[in-house]
């Protein structure tokens, strides 16, 4: 039988999403063991939190690569292509390697009565790819939570917590203490642990988790003052956290020049990303992230308001999000997005109107919304929206950027 194509193997992998979210480590431990990658030879940095995880991972990876280490980076979700989730030395996994490794895990789990979830399979594929490429340092971003997240099955050398807020309450608990306890459960026995500054309730949970693992944790309060490749004051804190994580790794070495180069060259899509002159794309979707986005917009553009192309998921705190976002919005553009989680434009209009008197436009398609991109346009609210917008921009469609 001829090997399955990249498209066919991805179709199969996406079909496993019908198994839903299954929190727990028994299944992923069995899968990683069957794939021969439960105990990686590389050193591992494991990052959990509510906001800033991706940027912190990106800083750590870029600096480690700049210092000459072979790096593996596992993140989620992707914006446009599945391959974005798995990178070695900054390069996305190839279509050929993706197809081959999906076929391999498919064959391994074929006789299993209980099938792994989509996220578990993707992590296994990533770990196999990292092993094949001989990575020295692996940076893993949790999918959700920490304690029962599939990434927590991988032994780690350093555990890192970015700022923690109220998110995924249906899975992680309805208090900040409960959510922080779930995320801090990535701490490992006698291994270094680092955290960004947290609210007192979260710190209490982190302290308890550290005691349970008989490890000390350090709150990284400093900001990195070196030039960064990512915009925003908050990225100085993410960069400092990433550097602290690398320095906590056993035997990690990097010169001042290598560190500066890695920080300056880092790239991370969807985080106050300027995709055209004055056109910003940001994946902020919960209240803490929106606060950071608003601060960064005002630091960058002062009192200039935005034409905001926005879409939001029905399971997010939309009232608080829109209330926070409204002061920087001069015009709302609420397009349809191809995801059942996104609130339809008509319902979104009702919520927006409660918090803003700015004009509202509801185009028939996202293409129409993006037909004229002009300076001081902000595309935000959902990674589904960002992914579709990126796909349109990369597909060869002719969008105009009018400088007005």
Please explain how this structure is put together:
The protein is an alpha/beta fold. The N and C termini lie far apart (58 Å). The protein contains 15 helices and 16 strands. Helix 8 (200-212) links the parallel strand 7 (193-195) and strand 8.
Key attributes of the depicted protein:
404 residues; alpha/beta; six-stranded mixed beta sheet; 15 helices; globular
Task: List low-confidence stretches.
Answer: 397-404
Helicity, in percent? Answer: 40-55%
Tell me the total number of β-strands: 16
Counting DSSP H or I runs of 4 or more residues, the number of helices is: 15
* Radius of gyration, in angstroms, nearest whole number: 21 Å
Q: Major sheet: size, sense and barrel closure?
A: 8 strands, mixed
Give the strand line-up of the largest sheet.
Answer: 4-3-2-5-1-6-7-8
Strand content: 5-15%
On the 0-100 scale, what is the average pLDDT?
Answer: 93
Using the alpha-carbon principal axes, give the shape: globular
C-alpha end-to-end distance: 58 Å
Helix-and-strand structural type = alpha/beta
């Amino acid at each position: 039988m001829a090997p399955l194509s990249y498209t066919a193997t991805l179709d199969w992998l996406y079909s496993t999403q019908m198994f839903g979210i299954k929190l727990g480590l028994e299944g992923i431990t069995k899968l990683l063991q069957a794939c021969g990658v439960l105990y990686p030879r590389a050193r591992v940095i494991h990052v959990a939190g509510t906001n800033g995880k991706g940027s912190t991972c990106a800083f750590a990876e870029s600096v480690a690569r700049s210092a000459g280490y072979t790096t593996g980076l596992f993140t989620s979700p992707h914006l446009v292509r599945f391959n974005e989730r798995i990178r070695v030395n900054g390069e996305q996994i190839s279509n050929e390697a993706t197809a081959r490794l999906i076929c391999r895990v498919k064959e391994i789990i074929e006789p299993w009565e209980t099938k792994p979830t989509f996220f578990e399979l993707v992590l296994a594929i990533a770990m196999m790819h990292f092993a094949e490429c001989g990575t020295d340092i692996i940076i893993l971003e949790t999918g959700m939570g920490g304690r029962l997240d599939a990434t927590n099955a991988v032994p780690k050398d350093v555990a890192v917590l970015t700022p923690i807020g109220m998110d995924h309450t249906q899975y992680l608990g309805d208090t900040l203490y409960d959510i922080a306890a779930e995320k801090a459960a990535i701490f490992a026995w006698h291994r270094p642990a680092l955290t960004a500054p947290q609210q007192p309730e979260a710190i209490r949970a982190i302290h308890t988790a550290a005691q349970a693992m008989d490890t000390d944790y350090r709150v990284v309060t400093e900001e990195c003052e070196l030039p960064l490749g990512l915009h925003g004051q908050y990225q100085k804190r993410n960069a400092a956290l990433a550097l602290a994580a690398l320095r906590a790794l056993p035997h990690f070495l990097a010169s001042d020049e290598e560190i500066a180069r890695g920080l300056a060259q880092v790239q991370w899509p969807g985080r106050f990303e300027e995709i055209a002159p004055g056109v910003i794309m940001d994946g902020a979707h919960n209240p803490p992230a929106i606060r950071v986005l608003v601060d960064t917009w005002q630091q960058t553009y002062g009192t200039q308001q935005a034409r905001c192309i926005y879409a939001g998921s029905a399971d997010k705190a939309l009232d608080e999000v829109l209330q926070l976002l409204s002061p920087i919005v001069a015009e709302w553009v609420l397009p349809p997005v191809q995801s059942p989680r996104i609130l339809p434009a008509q319902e979104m209009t009702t919520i927006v109107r409660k918090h803003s008197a700015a004009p509202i436009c509801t185009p028939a398609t996202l293409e129409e919304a993006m037909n004229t991109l002009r300076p001081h346009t902000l595309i935000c609210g959902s990674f589904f929206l960002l992914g579709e917008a990126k796909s349109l921009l990369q597909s060869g469609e002719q969008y105009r950027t009018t400088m007005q």
